[in-house]
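Take a minute with the sequence and fold tokens given here and flag any structure token that looks odd. Thanks in advance.
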Amino acid sequence: MDLSSIKDAFDRVAKKQKLSSSKSQEVVDQVGREIEQALATIHSPHDLSSPVDQKSVLTELKFKINAIGPLQQLEGSNKELNASLSKYQKLLEKVLNPDISKAYRNVDFDTRIINQIIANHFYRQGLFDLGDSIVNEAGEPDATALRSQFLEMHQIIGAMRERNLQPALTWVSANREKLLQIGSNLELKIHRLQFVEVLQNGTRADALIYARTYLTPFASVNKDEFPKLMGCLLYAGRLESSPYSELMSPIHWEMTTEELARQFCTLLGQSYENPLSVAVAAGVEGLPTLLKLANVMAAKKQEWLEMKQLPVPVELGKEFQFHSIFVCPVSRDQASEENPPMLLPCLHVLCKQSIMKLSKNSTRTFKCPYCPAEATVSHCRQLHF
């Protein structure tokens, strides 16, 4: 969605508001000065034989205020501002559909699964009290299946943020084989953080003992990293002024903490990205297409809510594609094991059921719907993702 027009309109309204505010303040200040001047004249020392004529002072003040015309000036600037605000509101209503309920469709949801998704959303975020409340109110004790694992993950992450690596080291040690199977070097990264801490806060001897005990096993598979860490021993207690000062950057703690969370989720068989957040984000991105479709169907007097399948694809960004999919360009059906994608000799791809409908039977020749080429079912080759 192009929001440049909205931004430009907003900037114009903001500029008009500042101008209106400045002008209003100027008028108020001008009126205030005239009143203060009149009061000063009335309260100024004067000869008892010739007292100040207060009536004439007030008459003159009234004349000056009328000459300024504060109401007219304030009404004029506010009128211009209100006109700009009105135009901006109309633009928002034109570009941003205020009634997104038009895209709503009645869908049968499994309530138990929805409750589990919401509870796990809170557990994943570390909001365990909220997750427990959802579970208790919904009466879904099975939704707590991942609670203890996410609790462990957040305890480890919390400790790392306080520069305590012991829980993380315990976890990577217990899951060493599984981490190696996915090609992870997380254990080395955590030991590297701990080594730098020992080097800064302990003695060179302490750091050497730590390196021999915990870093030596990684020397053969991390030939570039190991010499650099050994070079740090020359700068014990003054690493910040060494060629290896970059190792003290907080970014290493942040990146290692995030990597631990990612790999923790991987070993759990869960995605690192929160599924509920991803689903909401995907819905927001697809919403403009759905709203447009609903409006078009309403104009054609077609029932949007009764549709079993969308007549047009809803395009989402690559960040929402998690596995290979194929949607038949003829039937709009998504390929499956029962209805696999088939490659035609002309290199166009259709789903098997579409090919069978085009050919009428397995031996009859049919024409590709996208080019003049002809083929039979036996000429088509099934594709595998």
Notes: The radius of gyration is 36 Å. Strands lie at 341-343, 349-351, 366-367, 374-375, 381-382.
